[in-house]
Design brief:
This protein has helices spanning about 85-100, 115-120, 170-180, 210-225, 235-245, 255-265, 275-285, 290-295, 295-300, 305-315, 335-340, 345-350, 355-360, 395; strands at about 10-15, 20-25, 25-30, 35-40, 50-55, 60, 65-70, 105-110, 130, 135-140, 165, 190, 230-235, 250-255, 270, 315-320, 375-380, 400-405, 405-410, 415. It has about 425 residues and is an alpha/beta fold. The chain is globular and about 65 Å long.
Length: about 425
């Protein structure tokens, strides 16, 4: 595979600081060994051939999507278990390429990706974003991760099968399941706290796992210095998870003021995923979403924007996520346009950079243009602080994408290739 040479600098860059929502005068960003070493006065980089000239454009930290499914090549998740793992990996490579081309230099997989995919990316076996993985999500029998229909009895739990979840019941089983994911080096553990759209037999308004089971999973994650993210929609399910130590709530479309208070009390994070409901409504059936799941979409679609507004105004740590499945993942950048309907451009940009980095426990490494950080940088046309929706059209907005100081995307598209 050809990899572009690492650059020594990005010249004439107007550096964006998402935290303060400010942009610098033109500066030179000096790079070494894939990291930023200095933000220097213009002209410092000289005319080095291994420098990128931003020509006065804005330079942002690479974007972070904290809720993706890189192995979900279809919206019919039940069929993944019958798909060759090699085919799943090939699709994952293609999907990860697409994410990088849209400016997402880091992604957190919320069920499905494993240590093998993360290692392949770390070893540059193919070009893609940095990957934080959790292995398989944990679900109770009949929960959001149980993909069996009501008449299906057999559940294949072989570790090699590319299901997104493992079904476990009782404190001893959930402890073992959490430990199995953690022993592979998982960055987090995902659990199902409520019903969901893509599962066939559970109600959206159900709660899942007992208090004792949730506490056991949280204990195992904390013992390994990791954390738990929880799939939940209703305030009842969200609040219960927060009280029991879940650090990151995924979706949360039906939260209320009491939920907001709990988020703040526990310094927890909310990861709304609004793009997925928009696309599931429009084309879920086309991409394999079962009829039973299609009927659930309206229950969560309407509340998503209200929840985002409520959380943002209430001072919750809000993080960018999309949760798109199959070919709908091409609409990942639409999340910027959807969120901008109810919150400021600066808030949306922070959710995909600094706040997301804090959730991933990678502050100072990603989500910022500063000395010591990975040189994951976007050279963009337009001003996302003034109008973040420019990032909803990456084909026009992105001039260059750097990952670890290497150009991976330019005006002609993906640079690295197998």
């Amino acid at each position: 595979m050809h990899l572009s040479p690492a650059l020594s600098a990005v010249r004439n860059a107007r550096v964006v600081d998402p935290r303060s929502a400010t942009t610098s005068e033109p500066r030179d960003i000096l790079l070494h060994d894939g990291r930023i070493t200095e933000i220097a006065p213009p002209g410092t980089a000289g005319t080095d051939a291994y420098a990128c000239d931003a020509a006065g454009r804005m330079v942002l930290p690479g974007l972070i999507d904290a809720h993706v499914h890189v192995t979900a090549s279809t919206a019919d998740l039940a069929t993944l278990g019958d798909t060759s793992p090699y085919l799943v990996a090939a699709h994952a490579q293609r999907l990860l390429h697409g994410m990088l081309a849209r400016g997402f230099t880091t992604v957190r997989d919320a069920a499905g990706a494993d240590h093998g995919l993360a290692e392949a990316l770390d070893r540059d076996l193919f070009v893609g974003p940095r990957l934080f993985f959790g292995g398989k999500a944990l679900s109770q029998t009949g929960g959001h991760g149980d993909v069996r229909g009501p008449g299906t009895q057999v559940l294949d739990q072989h570790a090699c099968c590319p299901h997104l979840s493992v079904v476990c019941d009782g404190v001893s089983e959930v402890r073992r399941a959490a430990r199995e994911q953690l022993r592979t080096g998982a960055d987090h553990i995902k659990i199902m706290l409520s019903g969901g759209v893509a599962s066939p037999t559970d109600r959206i308004d159900s709660t899942q796992f007992s208090d004792e089971e949730i506490r056991a999973i949280v204990e195992e994650a904390e013992a390994a210095d990791r954390y738990v993210l929880g799939h939940a929609y209703t305030a009842r399910a969200v609040d219960r998870g927060l009280r029991l130590g879940v650090r990151s709530i995924e979706h949360g479309n039906l939260i209320d003021a009491g939920s907001v208070a709990l988020f703040r009390e526990h310094d927890a994070y909310l990861v709304p995923t609004l793009a997925t409901y928009d696309r599931l409504k429009a084309e879920g059936a086309l991409h394999g979403l079962p009829v039973a799941s299609q009927r659930k979409i309206d229950q969560v679609l309407a509340g998503g924007l209200d929840a985002l507004r409520l959380a943002t105004e209430g001072g919750v740590n809000v993080v960018f996520g999309t949760d798109l499945l199959g070919e709908m993942q091409q609409h990942q950048s639409a999340e910027f346009r959807i969120r901008a309907q109810v919150v400021s451009s600066a808030e949306v940009l922070r959710s995909a950079t600094t706040t997301a980095a804090r959730l991933l426990r990678a502050e100072g490494d990603i989500g910022v243009v500063a000395p010591g950080a990975h040189a994951d940088l976007l050279v963009v046309d337009g001003d996302p602080l003034d109008d973040v929706t420019v990032l909803a059209d990456p084909a026009h907005a992105l001039h260059t994408v750097l990952k670890g100081g290497r150009p991976v995307v330019d005006d002609a598209g993906l640079v690295g290739s197998v």
